Amino acid sequence: MATFVFCSLNRTAQNAARRSLSSHLPRLAGAAQPLCSAHSPALTLRWLSRGTRFRSQGTPGSSAARATRRGALALGGAAAVTAAAAVAGFLANGNHFQRAEMATRVSTAVEEKEEGDILERCRGFMSPPVTDIAVLQGSKAEMRTRMEMLIMETQAEFCRALQEVDGGTFKVDRWDRKEGGGGISCVMQDGKVFEKAGVNVSVVFGNLTEEAARQMRSRGKVLKGKDGKLPFCAMGVSSVIHPKNPHIPTVHFNYRYFEIEEEDGTKQWWFGGGTDLTPVYINKEDAFHFHNTLKEACDKHHPQYYPDYKKWCDRYFYIRHRGETRGIGGIFFDDLDSPTQEEAFNFVKSCAQTVVPCYLPIVYKHLNDAFTDEEKDWQQVRRGRYVEFNLVYDRGVKFGLATPGSRIESILMSLPLTARWEYMHEPAKGTQEAEMLEVLRNPKEWV
C-alpha cells in the first residue's frame, strides 16, 4: 500500500519536472515493469516531482477570493475550474446554489476536453492510475482507457472539494488484486465535517465466478463462456459520505463500466451507476437542487432519462423488509448499452460531472447548523437503515463479495463509522422525524 504526498514546486522546478517526465516516455512505453508501481523508488520520486500544487488549508467561511484560489490550486485542468466555480458562488454572495449552476456551465464548456496527454491529466489525480500510464498512452481511443481516466478524474475532483470544506486530508491507499487489477481507496475519518468519507476507484479483470455470472444472468444477460470461463473487466468510481451534522445529508454515487469477452471473441459491454441523497431531515430546497442538477445533466442526452432513472432509483434503493426507501433518491441505471457506446459514455460523463455541484452547495448551506442530542440519535437510527440496505440488497456489495481477491475494506467503506438500532423505534406523530419517515414510505417528485 502506498500513500502519495503532494509537493509544492516553483515554476522552474515544475518545468524541469515536466521535461524529465517527458524524456522518460519513449523508454517507459516498452518497460516491462508497471509504470505506476508503488514499489519503485525512482517512480515515486518522479510522481512526487510532477508539478502538482499543494493546497493551502483553510476553514469554512474564509473570503471568496481565497477559497476560489485554494480550490483552483488543489485541482488541475477542468477539475480545477469546475471545483473553483462550485465554491466561489456560494461564498461570494450567500446564494447556496448559484455556484452549482456555475459549475454546471463550466462542465458543459470543458466536457469535450477529454482527449489530451494522458501523463498531463494524471498529474491531477490522487494517485497514479491503476493501469500503467504507458499502456494508457498507447490506447487512448479505447473505452477502457477513457473510462479509467474519467473515474480517476471524478475521484480527484470530489476528494479535493471535500478536503476544502473539511480541512482534513484523505488517506490514499493503493491496493493490488492478485487475480488482476487493483484500486485506489481514498478515505477520510473523524474530520471536522465528515465522520467518514470514502471515494474509491477500482479496475479489476480476470474470469467471472459462477456466482457473479449467475447474478448477471438473473438480470437477463446472455453469457456464453469458453470452457466455463468468462473473461471480464470491471471498473468504476464509488463514494459514500457520512457527515457528522445530522442536517447535512449522506450522499452516494457510483459510475461503472463492464466488459465481458465471449467464446467467439466478441465483447459485451454496459455502463451503470447513479447518484442518490439520504438526508436525515427533509429540506425541500435541498431536494429540488439535488434532483434538478441531475435532471439537467440527463436532459442534455434524452428527456426521458431523468424520469425513468429517478423511478429506477426509488425502486432500487428500497428496503423491502422496512417498507421504506433508503433516502430521497436521485438517479440510478444499469446495463446501459444503447444507443451507442459513445453516446452512453458521454451520458455517464455528464452524470459524473454533477457530483460536486449537486452536493457541495448543500454541505456549505448546513455547515454551521446547530443540532440536538435527539437529532443526532435520529441520525444514528437512519444510518442503521443505511447499513441494512447495503448489506442485504446492494448489488455492488454482492458482486464484490462474490469476486475472488476483492478488497473487503474497500467494499465495506460505504458503512458509517457509527450507527444505532433501537427496538420497535417509531417517531412521534407530527414531528420532523415522522415527516421524514412519511417521505421514505411514499417517494415524492422533487422537480
From TrEMBL:
Keyword ATP-binding: no
Catalyzed chemical reaction(s): coproporphyrinogen III + O2 + 2 H(+) = protoporphyrinogen IX + 2 CO2 + 2 H2O
One GO CC annotation: cytoplasm
Keyword match Transmembrane helix: yes
GO molecular function: coproporphyrinogen oxidase activity
InterPro entries on file: Coprogen_oxidase_aer (IPR001260), Coprogen_oxidase_aer_sf (IPR036406), Coprogen_oxidase_CS (IPR018375)
Pathway the protein contributes to: Porphyrin-containing compound metabolism; protoporphyrin-IX biosynthesis; protoporphyrinogen-IX from coproporphyrinogen-III (O2 route): step 1/1
Transmembrane segments: 72-92
PROSITE patterns in the cross-refs: COPROGEN_OXIDASE
Class of this enzyme: oxidoreductase
Its EC number(s): 1.3.3.3
Gene Ontology biological-process entries: protoporphyrinogen IX biosynthetic process
Assigned keywords, A-Z: Heme biosynthesis, Membrane, Oxidoreductase, Porphyrin biosynthesis, Transmembrane, Transmembrane helix
Family stated for the protein in its record: Belongs to the aerobic coproporphyrinogen-III oxidase family.
NCBIfam families named in the record: PRK05330.1
SUBUNIT field: Homodimer.
Protein name as catalogued: Oxygen-dependent coproporphyrinogen-III oxidase, mitochondrial
Taxonomic classification: Eukaryota, Metazoa, Chordata, Craniata, Vertebrata
